[in-house]
Amino acid sequence: MTLSAFTPKAAAFGLPTPRGILLMGIPGTGKSLTAKATASVLGKPLLRLDAGRLFAGIVGESEANLRRAIAMAEAVAPCIIWIDELEKALSGSRSSGSTDDGTTARVFGSFLSWLQEKESPVFVVATANDISQLPPELLRKGRMDEISFLDLPGEGERADIWRIH
Description:
Layout (H helix, E strand, L loop, with lengths): L7 H6 L6 E5 L6 H12 L3 E4 L11 H16 L2 E5 L2 H5 L5 H4 L3 H15 L4 E7 L7 H4 L6 E4 L5 H10 L1
Parallel strand pairs: 1-4, 1-5, 2-3, 3-4
């Protein structure tokens, strides 16, 4: 019998609730496919968060959109929340005070707090094409369980792909 990391039995055993993974690499290396496969392998529903759609024009609405998205994921939990191309949503967080009155920085701060403190069984799979555009606070230990680089397949791996198809 396998022990699911999202069950009360796992918590009683002393396992922490899994937080998530950050997958980085150039486009076309299977980051999005890996997010989908993760949900399939774990047998959990997959929710896709379009981070760009969080931002709205009315003051405070962007933060409210994030709170609603988190509340929905926690209501469905245990689940996988997939955030594709995270760096595009957070790229302006450093200059946010001069470009958008701090909205991006506040949304990012709320997201980081949730990542750090969440106790609900929501597993985050975030993808990024350019890790250099991600704020370093996101990469700090404890935010994600793992940060992985997905590279293009090597010669042997390409041959295997051709054999399969």
